[in-house]
Amino acid sequence: MVSQLKALYDEQGFVVVPGLLTSEQQQELRAACERVVALTREGKWPHRRTVGKQFPPYGDDNPDSWGVQHLMHPGLGEPAFAKWYTSQPLSEVVKELLVCQEEDLEMELFNLLINPLGHNFALRWHRDDVHEKATEDEEREALGKWHFGVQWNTALYLDSCLYIVPGSHMTPRTPEQRKHSETMEPPTDPHAMPGSLRLTLEPGETVFYNSNILHCATYDCAERRATLHANMGNVQGGSTRARNVLQHGLKWMKEEAFRESLDGNAKGKAMLDRLVDMQGRSVGDVGYSLGG
Ligand SMILES: O=C(O)CCC(=O)C(=O)O
Ligand SMILES: [Fe+2]
Predict the structure, then answer these.
(1) Predicted confidence (pLDDT) per residue in 159-218, tens digit
(2) For 196, phi and psi rounded to 5 degrees?
C-alpha cells in the first residue's frame, strides 16, 4: 500500500509539503543564502546560473545571475546547507516518494534559485531530462523509467515562479503542448500552455516534483527569491540519473575537501559514496539534456 502522499505525487507529478524547516533552520538558511547570493553577485562565486542561459552549461556571458550552484561546496563554507539536505524530516519524505530505504539514498544536486537583479528572465517549457524534439515514443520511454529520483523547491520567501502541467509526467505531450514546448523561447504567457498551473509556495513550503513533468518558470527581478532547489536519488536506479545529475559538473564532490566538510555527518558521507559509485559506473561523456 502506498501512502496518501505518494499516491498524490504519482497522480499529479508533484506534491506540496509544509514544515520541513524549523523556524531556526529557516533563519539560518536565509542568512547563509544572503551570504552566498552576495558573493555570487559580487562576481566572487563562479558557479552560478547566468541570466540569458536557461540550461547547463550556464557560461559567463552576463553578470546577472538567477541561481547559485553547489551550495554544499566547501569553498562556500556554509555547513547549514549539507546539514539540512541530510536532515531526517526531509529524508523521510524522499524515502516515501521514492519507496526506498535510508541505505538507498544518493546525494545529488543542491542549488539555490534567486531573482536576477537587472532583468526579468524565464525558462521555456521543458522536461529536465527529455529533449524538446523527442518523438512521442522516445518521450514515453523516458517517462517510463524516471522513478529513481525526486526534485524539490523549498521557498525561503514567497515564491510563485514555477508553472507546471499536472499529470504531464506520465504522458507524452499533446500536439498543442508540443507546440508550446518545442521552441527555445520562454513563453510570453505561461497560461497559454494547456493544463498549466502556477504554483505558489509560502515561505517554508516545499514542492516535490518529478523533474520530467512539463514545467517552466518566470523570474521577476523586483521580487526577492531564495528557493532551495535540490534532488536526491535512489541508488537502485543505477546510472539512470547520470546525465541529469552529472551535467552540472560535480568533480568537486569527489574531492577530499568535500568529504572532510561532512565530518560528523556519517549519513551524508554514505549518501555521497553512493553518488561517487554511480558516477564511477556511468561510462563516457554524459553530455547535456537540453539546449537553450
Ligand atoms: O525556477 C524553477 O523553479 C525551476 C528551475 C528549472 O526548471 C530548471 O532549472 O530546470
Ligand atoms: Fe527544469
Answers:
(1) 999 999 999 999 999 999 999 999 999 999 999 999 999 999 999 999 999 999 999 999
(2) -75, 155
Calculate the CA 142 to chain-centre distance.
18
CA 175 – CA 136 distance, rounded (Å): 10
Q: Nine-digit cell at 69?
A: 550552484
Distance CA 217, CA 66 (A): 11
What's the rounded Cα separation, in Å, for the pair 58 and 39?
Answer: 17
Where do we find the cell 517552466? Answer: 216
Residue 200 CB burial class (10 angstroms; 0-12, 13-18, ≥19): middle
Higher pLDDT, 174 or 238: 174
- Distance between Cα 240 and ligand 1 center (Å): 20
Q: What is the rounded distance in angstroms from the CA atom of residue 156 to the CA atom of residue 90?
A: 15
* Percent of residues, the chain, with pLDDT higher than 90: 88
State how far the Cα of 18 lies from the Cα of 89, in Å rounded to an integer. Answer: 11
- CA-closest residue to ligand 1 atom 9: 55
pLDDT of 246-261, one tens digit each?
888 888 999 999 999 9
What is the CA(186)–ligand 1 centre distance, in A?
12
Centre of ligand 2 from the C-alpha of residue 24, in Å: 29
Pocket of ligand 1 from Cβ distances under 6 Å: 113, 123, 128, 153, 161-162, 215, 217
Please list all protein residues whose beta carbon sits less than 5 angstroms from ligand 2, which is an ion.
128
> Domains in the chain, ordered, with CATH?
4-281 (2.60.120.620)
Given a cut of 70, whether residue 283 has pLDDT beyond it is: no
What was the pLDDT predicted at 242? 83
CA of 215 to the centre of ligand 2 (A): 6
Q: Helix, strand, coil: what percent of the chain each, to 5?
A: 35, 20, 40
